[in-house]
Amino acid sequence: MFDEIEETCRAALGHAPEALEFPGGIGRKTMIAVVRGRRYVISRRRSEARARLEAGVLRALAPTGAVPGLLHRGGRWIVQEHVPGPRLSGAIDAADGPGAETLMDRGATGLVAMQQEGARAGLASRVPPLGTRDVWLDELLSMPARLADTLGMEPPRFDAGAARPALRAGPPVFVKWDARTGNAILGDDGRIRWIDWEHCGARNAVDDLVWMFGDEWTPDCPEVERAAVTRLADAHGLERTATAGAFAAMGALHACVRLALILARKGEGGWWSHGGALAADRVGVTRRVAARLARRGARWSEAAPGMSPLSGFFGAVPEHLPR
User: Fold this and answer.
1) 3-state secondary structure the chain
2) Which of 144, 187, 217, 225 has its CA 20 to 30 A from that of 16?
3) What is the pTM of this model?
């Protein structure tokens, strides 16, 4: 791999790297190369096709100023400008209440703006469709029962038939999809830039806001959330009430997905350090953020078509979390 990194740096920057840094750990697919005293972000994607897709998306979204500058794409490798600053997840965690809400609002605004720019660039027809198969939706709808089984709880009942249309609502648009706040950088210049675009595609417009507000590291900001969903609906010419219902339905099930992931990462071991996991952009395997996520799932269930029975289930999750 190191030969490929050197070759990529020579092709993109004219010189081999003097040093390599691995801020997320040596096993991560993205690293920082120091070339002639300057830092650059080097990423290796799973395939050349994915790298090509991401490079094209970065070029298309460049006018928004909400993505890093693309410098080079060769094979599976992408070279981008390095944006100094903390991950948005860490900046939000360190902020006070109003400061965290402001950052959340700015992050959501950027996501909507990038969806709009993606529409202008025709990206929805150039990226792969996501979540279109019935089996994918069936698996998503099974997540509450699977989470209950993991926690030793009775499987919750809800009207999956009523929820299903909301989960499909809206025409497919360009979405980042993995829009966790850990995938954004709050630059030292004060701007938020979204990174790691290899999983982008076309699906429901609410998905990006679900990923952002439904991440376990995200604080509960109901007013900011409602304003963002309204802004999203207006930006795409969607009906506000239906959009809010689709957001709540997807959000409740996404909360189950994230909780299941937290428990899978924890396994039989203890809970992780909050600061250590957050700094390394790892899954939030802490009891506090898991309980907060469950409470958010309860709130979303109340607003989602056919899902109000899940509110009680989510409300009981914190007391069933391992000590």
Assistant:
1) CHHHHHHHHHHHHCCCCCEEECCCCCCCCEEEEEECCEEEEEEECCCHHHHHHHHHHHHHHHHHCCCCCEEEEECCEEEEECCCCCEHHHHHHHCCHHHHHHHHHHHHHHHHHHHHHHHHCCHHHCCCECCCCHHHHHHHHCHHHHHHHHHCCCCCCCCHHHHHHHHHCCCCEEECCCCCHHHEEECCCCCEEECCCCCCEEECCCHHHHHHHCCCCCCCCHHHHHHHHHHHHHHHCCCHHHHHHHHHHHHHHHHHHHHHHHHHHHCCCCCCCHHHHHHCCCCCCCHHHHHHHHHHHHHHHHHCCCCCCHHHHHHHHHHHCCC
2) 187
3) 0.95
